Amino acid sequence: MKKKIVDIARDLNLSPSTISKIVNNKGRISSETRERVLKYVKECGYLAMSNARILSSKKSWTIGIIYSDISLIGFEHPFFSRIFQSFKDYVAQRGYDVVMIVSKLGYNELTYLEWCENKKVDGILIVMGNINNPNIIEVVNSSFPCISTDIVMPNLHSVICDDKQGVILAIDYAIKLGFSKIMMVTGPKTARSFYVRTEFFEEEMKKRNISYNEGDIITTDGFGFSSGFNAGQEIAKRKNLPELIIVNSDVIAYGVIRGLNSMDLDVPNDISVIGYDDIEFSQNFTPSLTTILQDTKLIGEKAAEALLLAINQKLQKKQKITYLPVSLIERESTKKKN
Amino acid sequence: MKKKIVDIARDLNLSPSTISKIVNNKGRISSETRERVLKYVKECGYLAMSNARILSSKKSWTIGIIYSDISLIGFEHPFFSRIFQSFKDYVAQRGYDVVMIVSKLGYNELTYLEWCENKKVDGILIVMGNINNPNIIEVVNSSFPCISTDIVMPNLHSVICDDKQGVILAIDYAIKLGFSKIMMVTGPKTARSFYVRTEFFEEEMKKRNISYNEGDIITTDGFGFSSGFNAGQEIAKRKNLPELIIVNSDVIAYGVIRGLNSMDLDVPNDISVIGYDDIEFSQNFTPSLTTILQDTKLIGEKAAEALLLAINQKLQKKQKITYLPVSLIERESTKKKN
DNA sequence: TTGTAAGCGTTATCAA
DNA sequence: TTGATAACGCTTACAA
After folding, report:
1. Cα distances (angstroms) measured from residue B238 to each of B174, B212, B216, B334
2. Contact yes or no for A195/A164 (Cβ under 8 A)
C-alpha cells in the first residue's frame, strides 16, 4: 500500500505539515531535515494524492482542453492533434495534467465554464474553437487563464503562425521563379486564417505593383479536396491562365491540381501551385507539393509556455497575439518560368 | 458563487447527507423530499465539487487514457484519434471525464500504474500501446479495469476489427474480379495487425487453392509512403507480375502505386491494388483507393461500453477479444480482369 | 524551525 | 426517512 503523508511523518518522527512544506518547497525548513525527508520520500516514491491536494489547496495542476467544436473534424485534424500533443508534453514536464473539457457530463449539461469551476482547472487551452460559441466566449471572459492556438478574440492570448509572412514567402517565391500572373485560392473566409491570408495577399500584391483583379482570388465553399477540384476546373476554363496559384491549404491545393489535370493542364509544367500547412501527404502527392510549413510542435510549446506564465503570474487578461515564423518547403509543384 | 452542498442543505432545511444521497441516488428517501431537492438542485445548477467527491468516495468518474507510446505517431494518427474521440463522447455521456496518462509529471517519473493510483482512475483505455512496454504490462496486470483498441495480450480485453474478415473480403473481391495472381504487401510484422493479416492471407489462399509462393508476400521495413514505393518498384521488376496486390495499409498502398507508376505500370490497368484502413485521402488519391474500411467510431463506442461494464461489475480480468466487422470500399484502384 | 489544528466539500456509517 | 459525525488526505494559518 502506498504511504500517505501521515505515514511518512510518523516514520520520520515529524509532523505532516513539515513534510508537506518540504515536498511543496514552501516555508523555512532546516536543510538537514529537508534532505532527510526528500531522501525518504524518494525512497518510498511518495506522491501526494492528487484529489486531496486539489481539495485543500488553490491549485489543481490540471489544464482543461477545449478541442473540437461546431466543426466536426475534432481530433482527426492532424494539424491540431500535433499542437495538442506537443502542448501536453510541455506541461506534463512541469507537473500539469491535461483533461478534455466536455460540455455534457452524465445527465448534466454543463457550460465549459461550469465544468472548469467544478474541476478547478488552473488554466485552459483552446486548441480549436469557434469565436461564436457562447460557451467559449464565456470561458475567455472568465477569470481562468486561457490560451488559444486557433481563434483570435478580445481578452484572449493567441499563439499562431505568422500568416503575413507565409503569404509574403509565397509571393516572393513566385516572383523569384519569374512569374507575375499569380492567383490565390482560399478556403471559406469564416476561418480566420483564410480570411487574413487573402487580405495579406491583396496588400502584398499591391505593394509589389503586381497587377491582379477580383477574379484572381477564388474562395471555395468548402475545406476539402472537392472544393479545390472545382476551383481548379474553373481556373482551367479561363482564357487568361495564371502562371502560379497560391492555395491556402494543402488539401484544397491537391484538389486544385487534380482539377487542373482533369482539364489537361499539367502542374508544374503549365501552372505552378503552392500549398499551405505541409500536411503529411504533401511530400507524397504527385507532384509533391511546394508549401508553407507551420511548425505545430513550436506552436504547442509556445502556447504551453505562455499559459503557464499566465497561471503563475496571474496576469491581467487582454488580447494578445504571438506570431510564430513559417517557412517555405520547395518541392515539385512549382517550377521556374520557361 | 456556486452553492456547495451545505448551502443547498441549509436552504432546504435538510442535512448535507440527505442531499448527497438524493443526488447520488442512494439510500431511502421519501419521494416528496427527493423531488423537492432535485428541483432545487436543478434550479441552482448544483454539482458536487469533483475533487471533494473523489476524495471521500471510491469512485473518481475519471478514465485514464494511454495514448502514443514508443512509436512517435501518437495523436497524429487519424485512425487512433477517431477512436479516442468516439470513446470520449460515449463515456462523457455517462458522466466520465477523460485524462491523458503521462509517465512524467513534473520532477517525478511515474509509472502508468502509479499515476493511475494517484488519480484513482476508475478505468483505463489503451488507445495505442506497445506490448513490450513494462509500464503497460504492469497496468494490464493490475486490478484496474482496462480496455485496449490496439494491443492484444493476456489479461486484457481488446476491441479490434476483424482482420480475418478484412483479408477474406479482399481475397474474395480479387477472385470476383477474375484474378488469381495475388500478392500481399504488409508493414512490419511487429505490429499485430500486419502480422495477423499475413497469417490470414496464407491461410485463406491455401483454403481457396490459389497458388502463391513466399515471394508473394513482401514485408516493408517501415510504415510510410516510401516503404511502399520501394515495394512497388521491386514488384515491377519481377518477370511474373501479379494481377492484384493487397496492401495492409492505405499509406503504404499509395506508395506501392507510385512505385509501380515509376516503373511504367498503371494502376488499375496493369495491376489492381487494394488498401487497408480507408484514411481520409484514400478517396482523393489518383486513382482513388479500393480499401478495407475499419469503423473507428464503432471501435471507440464498443470499447467504452465494455470498459464501463468492467468498471461497474468488477469483472475478473482475463484475455478477451471483441471483433468488429470491416467492409470493402470499391473505388478506382481495382478493375475487372480484361 | 517545527507542530497543532482547522478546513477543503464530499460521502459513508451509524444512530435517531 | 433523516441527521450527526467521522472519515477522505492534504495544505495552511497560526502557535510554539
Report:
1. 20, 14, 11, 20
2. no
Query: Is B62-160+297-323 CATH 3.40.50.2300?
Result: yes
Mean pLDDT of chain B: 93
| Distance in Å, alpha carbon of B108 to nearest chain A alpha carbon | 8
Q: Tell me if A166 sits within 8 A of A326, measured CB to CB.
A: yes
Interface test with B, best of A4, A58, A66, A75 (most B CBs within 10 A): A75
Q: Which residue has its C-alpha nearest to nucleotide D9's C1'?
A: A52
* A152, A321 Cβ separation under 8 angstroms: yes
Instruction: For residue B273, list its beta bridge partners.
Output: B245
The amino acid present at B322, given as its one-letter code, is: T
Per-residue pLDDT, A190: 85
**The one-letter amino acid at A108:** N
Q: List protein-proximal bases of chain D (any atom < 7 A from a CB).
A: 1-5, 7-14
The footprint of strand C (CB < 7 Å) covers A 13-18, 21, 27-30, 32-34, 52, 55-56; B 4-6, 16-17, 19-20, 23-24, 26-27, 46, 48-49, 52-53, 55-58
pLDDT at position B223 is: 85
What is the spatial distance between Cα A137 and Cα B132, in angstroms, rounded to a whole number?
Answer: 45
Least confident of A21-25, A48-52, B64-68, B101-105: B101-105
Which of the nucleotides lies closest to B32 (Cα–C1')? D1
**What Cα–Cα distance (Å) separates residue A141 from each residue in A20, A124, A136, A155, A157?**
34, 12, 9, 7, 12
Q: How many residues belong to chain A? A: 338
pLDDT at A75 over 70: no
Residue B75 clears pLDDT 70, i.e. is over it: no
Q: In Å, what is the CA distance from B23 to each residue of A115, B16, B34, B47, B309?
A: 17, 11, 9, 9, 22
User: Which comes out higher in pLDDT, residue A330 or A285?
Assistant: A330
CA of B7 to C1' of C6 (A): 20
Contacts of A255 in chain B (CB under 8 A): 284
Domains B62-160+297-323 and B163-294 share a fold: yes
Give per-residue pLDDT as tens, B207-223.
999 999 999 999 999 88
Confidence check: pLDDT of A323 > 80:
yes
Residue A68 has a pLDDT of 67
Instruction: For CA atoms B15, B21, B23, B29, give the dihedral sign.
Output: negative
Residue nearest to nucleotide D13 (CA to C1'): A17
* Portion of chain B with pLDDT greater than 90, in percent: 81
Domain boundaries, chain B: 5-57, 62-160+297-323, 163-294
Judging contacts by C-beta atoms under 8 Å, the chain A residues touching residue B222 are none
CB hemisphere CA count around A319 (13 angstroms): 5
Q: What is the pLDDT of residue B109?
A: 85
A323 compared with B190, residue with greater pLDDT: A323
Whole-number pLDDT of residue B18: 95
Query: Mean pLDDT over residues B66-70, rounded?
Result: 68
Chain A contacts of B98, Cβ < 8 Å? 99-100, 102
What residue in A sits closest to B67 (Cα-Cα)?
A: A85
What grid cell was written down for B14? 435538510
Classify B163-294 by CATH class: alpha beta
Nearest-CB residue to B55 (from A55, A108, A286): A55
